[in-house]
Design a protein that fits this description.
The chain is of the alpha+beta class. Helices cover 27% and strands 30% of the residues. It is globular.
Length: 159
């Protein structure tokens, strides 16, 4: 079994409900147990700013799925939620990012773990630290230290 962390975000079609449903679907993944879920957080969009704020969270999974199989399951959940990839940083019904997969480092065109930009995103680091206070990002260090450097990003815990 491998401990994996999944970032969850949504800003279209009732984002709170999208995130709640994503937690439920993650709990039903094969050979996987949802072992922790963060609170919900509100954050301003990064990149393309002309869109609604996001609702974000992080899920901790204890899984026997390989990293690629887990990614495929995450993408299937996104597809069921009507995820469209029209342009970079576009609004979305649901975004599921494989943030960490144990201590594994993967750098392939279809999968990068740790997630390539997680260390730059307070909306990922804050909920991650809520459920994994000692989290380390392989190759980058303490998630707490990385979050301390993100004072330029507002993240509000909402539930």
């Amino acid at each position: 079994m491998t401990l994996a962390y999944v970032g969850i975000g949504a800003n279209l079609e009732d984002p709170r409900a999208q995130v709640a449903q994503a937690f439920d679907e993650l709990a039903r993944l094969p050979r996987t147990r949802l072992s922790a879920r963060s609170s919900l957080y509100r954050s301003a969009p990064l990149g393309y700013a002309a869109q609604p704020d996001f609702i974000n969270a992080v899920a901790e999974l204890d899984t026997a799925l390989g990293a690629h199989a887990l990614l495929a399951e995450l993408q299937a959940i996104e597809a069921r939620h009507g995820r469209s990839r029209s342009f970079a940083n576009a609004p979305r019904t649901l975004d599921l990012d494989l943030l960490l997969y144990g201590d594994t480092r993967i750098d392939e065109p279809q999968l990068v773990v740790p997630h390539a930009r997680m260390h730059q995103r307070a909306f990922v680091l804050q909920p991650l630290l809520e459920i994994a206070p000692q989290a380390q990002i392989p190759g980058l260090g303490s998630a707490a230290a990385l979050l301390a450097a993100r004072t330029d990003q507002r993240v509000e815990r909402i539930r």
